[in-house]
Write a structure and sequence with these properties.
2 domains, 370 residues, 18 strands, seven-stranded mixed β-sheet, binds 5'-O-[(R)-(benzoyloxy)(hydroxy)phosphoryl]adenosine, alpha/beta
């Protein structure tokens, strides 16, 4: 990468920095991610190919365009790159977006798992004609398998596409012709044949397919270092240039990845590890729960115990006992049942729209609920 000066370059080289994205981490200070013209162009084009993009494509930007997801996966840039049309939504409200889809004959749009239940509910009652919508992307956080199945059933004529990506680069998509089971239960596979992913144990040794490990990534559009962050880079990259994603995944022989949690998002309850995402994924399917986050809190006996922050769907939050029955029914081990339940009115979100566990941890420290 050439050093950049204050004056705009008339003809930047392909490998020059095109833009800086913000890392989406929910813990610690956000880092800057340099993306080059070449890698970012490739990112959008390769994603577009997987989505069957052409000049007939009409992309509805439902989420803010500043997200890498909406911007280029394939998003706005990947659509414009093939001569397609982009429609900008003023907000993600489904009744309004469905009207836009009908009016503009939208072929593809992208939402996140928080919106999925709202869009599903509207889908049941809408009179809007959604027959143009070929692809509904859902990504940026773990989509519960049950919700994915509902989308597949309810959005007839539309293919659900799971999107597992990161501003740092690596982008995984389910393919339009994947089986409904793969689409419902996996977060896709890398978009480029040149993506080089490893799933490793604590000693950076590769684990077998089907086993959970940390996802490492290297490839044509994955960063090689955060901007001006040598100390952080030394921890976040292997000596041979793989980016440590901090995501815990299982890889299927087909190459599809299942996100099992984040390495940092684990609760160590007396030695037994609880992947917060796994429990959240189950509880998200509970009819009385609109939104749920599981956090660790210090415990004199166990080291850590788990606290569930819940935004209830209706007036009352399910009790710990009710959650235990629900989880047991689903075959979840008893130690994974939240030790404590707290009600919050709304889920705090980070500037990029992710559940802000740091803000919840502050509430925990204060011993209050929002
Ligand atoms: C997208 O990018 P970021 O940078 O805001 O966040 C990346 C992180 C991933 O490392 C992973 O922990 C999580 O968000 N994530 C998912 C996920 N998609 C992203 N976790 C579970 N399931 C998924 N489907 O969030 C982003 C970037 C490009 C496209 C889509 C999302």
């Amino acid at each position: 990468m050439r050093p950049t000066s204050g004056t705009p370059q008339a003809s930047p080289a392909a490998e020059d920095m095109a833009l800086l994205l913000l890392s989406g981490g929910t813990t610690g200070l956000p880092k800057l991610i340099p993306r080059s013209h070449a890698d970012y162009l490739y990112n959008g084009r390769a994603a577009g190919e997987v989505c069957g993009h052409s000049s007939d494509t009409v992309y509805l930007a439902t989420l803010p365009v500043a997200f890498n997801y909406t911007m280029n996966c394939p998003g706005v840039l990947g659509t414009l790159a093939v001569g397609g049309k982009v429609v900008l939504a003023a907000n993600p409200d489904p009744s309004y977006c469905f009207e836009l889809i009908e009016r503009e004959r939208v072929t593809i749009t992208a939402i996140n798992p928080q919106l999925a239940p709202v869009w599903l509910a509207e889908r049941g009652g809408t009179r809007a004609d959604l027959s143009s919508l070929r692809v509904l992307q859902v990504g940026s956080a773990r989509l519960a398998d049950d919700v994915a199945r509902q989308i597949i059933t309810e959005f007839t004529g539309t293919v659900l596409q799971q999107v597992f990506g990161m501003a740092e680069g690596l982008l995984c998509l389910t393919r339009l012709d994947d089986s409904p089971e793969i689409i419902a239960t996996t977060q896709g596979r890398p978009i480029s044949p040149a993506d080089d992913v490893r799933v490793t144990d604590d000693e950076d040794r590769d684990v077998s397919d089907g086993e959970v490990g940390e996802l490492l990534a290297r490839g044509p559009y994955t960063l090689r270092g955060y901007y001006r962050a040598p100390e952080h880079n030394a921890k976040t990259f292997t000596d041979d240039g793989y980016y440590r994603t901090g995501d815990r995944v299982r890889r299927l022989p087909s190459g599809h990845l299942i996100v099992a949690g984040r390495s940092k998002d684990q609760i160590n309850r007396g030695g037994e590890k609880i992947p917060a995402t796994e429990v959240e994924n189950h509880l998200q399917a509970h009819p009385a729960i609109q939104s749920i986050a599981l956090l660790p809190t210090p415990d004199p006996d166990l080291g850590e115990r788990s606290v569930a922050f819940i935004v209830p769907t209706g007036a009352s939050t399910p009790t710990r006992r009710e959650l235990a029955a629900f989880l047991t029914e689903r075959g979840v081990a008893a130690y994974k049942v939240p030790d404590e339940v707290r009600t919050v009115e709304t889920m705090p979100l980070t500037p990029v729209g992710k559940m802000d566990k740091k803000a919840l941890a502050v509430l925990l420290d204060k011993g209050t609920s929002a």
